[in-house]
Design a protein that fits this description.
By secondary structure, the chain is α+β, with helices and mostly antiparallel strands. It has three helices and 24 strands. The strands form five sheets. A six-stranded antiparallel β-sheet has the order 2-1-11-10-7-8, with no helix packed on it.
Length: 335
């Protein structure tokens, strides 16, 4: 093939019907005017992908885009050959048909090809999966997942926009494919977690899973795979904790009522006497107080020997009150 040439025809997107002719060499796809294939769509990165046309064919590679590059519904992670009849998807809304003028088996001759679901049928298919914020700045908000890739981030350019400072500008991407739903961290600062485990590669999601982005935002995944009536792990743990606390409080209440009842049923002394007529209540003995002994009063009568002459008598007068007995020189004196 001396002069290889391929054609891309936009099937869905802002410039539906537009045709891009690819000759030998490299052609970048992006949303800025510096790209050879310029498509003004916000879900496409500034430099999204590159197609290289050479003598033996054409291949495409993703340039680290946010929303991914897909061929026939499968996201690519390495250089991938293109062939006439392929459907190329860039971002979440733009699809292009690949053809090669003059080649046998061009898009007009291939018959049915893979076409991403659109319109009502697409809406019915993607309604199977959604994310519901359980914890964060917008609790209860629901995001329905559509076919293709959707990014999660704190800036308004993301399909799943969450204004939280712990989330990176472009934090993670979720891709809905015919064979399942996958989440991938985009080199965020605070990480992406599925059911409490930090992920480092694309990870499948199913209904009932819990997704954490950053440090404060968690989603519950709704869709196929969750058991009927299943609740997210965080809600189940919270309910279990509340149940345990309530059970402990009830147990303590029962024990307290039992103790109070036991004391209430114990008979008093009055009850014992009334229930046993023959019982005699012994009077409490009252002890008389022991009198405090009164120390004897000693009075010393001294008379000056010069005031009384020999043979004279001296009269001593005294008065004692409240005395049981009076003794004079040891001899009892009548009172």
């Amino acid at each position: 093939m001396s002069n290889p040439q391929f054609t891309l025809t936009m099937q869905s997107g802002p410039q539906a019907g537009q045709t891009f002719t690819l000759t030998a060499g490299s052609h970048t796809i992006g949303r800025t005017s510096g790209n050879q294939i310029y498509i003004a769509d916000p879900t496409i990165s500034k430099r999204h992908a590159r197609i290289t046309v050479q003598a033996d064919g054409a291949f495409i590679e993703d340039l680290g885009s946010s929303n991914g590059t897909f061929i026939n519904g499968k996201r690519i992670s390495a250089s991938t050959w293109l062939k006439p009849g392929d459907v190329l998807q860039v971002g979440t809304t733009v699809t292009l048909n690949v053809s090669q003028p003059g080649a046998s088996g061009s898009v007009a001759d291939l018959g049915p090809t893979y076409i991403p679901q659109q319109g009502p049928s697409r809406a019915a298919a993607v309604s199977n999966f959604s994310l519901v914020i359980q914890r964060g700045s917008q609790p209860g908000q629901t995001f329905s997942l559509v076919s293709g890739a959707q990014t999660i981030g704190r800036t308004s350019g993301n399909q799943i926009h969450i204004a939280d400072s712990t989330i990176s500008k472009q934090h993670a991407s979720i891709t809905v494919q015919p064979n399942g739903v996958f989440i991938q961290d985009l080199g965020s600062s605070n990480g992406t977690f599925v059911n409490g485990q930090r992920i480092s590669s694309p990870t499948p999601l199913q209904g009932g899973d819990t997704v954490q982005v950053g440090t404060t935002v968690t989603f519950g995944v709704q869709g196929p795979g969750a058991a009927a009536g299943a609740v997210p792990a965080s809600s189940a743990s919270k309910g279990l904790a509340i149940g345990l606390i309530a059970g402990a409080v009830a147990l303590l209440a029962v024990i307290g009522i039992g103790v109070i009842g036991w004391f209430a049923l114990q008979p008093t002394e009055t009850d014992k006497t009334q229930n046993n007529p023959t019982a005699v209540v012994e009077p409490t003995a009252t002890e008389e107080p022991t009198p405090t002994p009164i120390p004897p009063a000693v009075v010393d009568f001294s008379v000056d020997k010069n005031s009384v002459k020999l043979g004279e008598c001296a009269t001593l007068r005294w008065r004692v009150e409240d005395a049981k007995e009076v003794r004079l020189d040891g001899e009892l004196v009548s009172n």
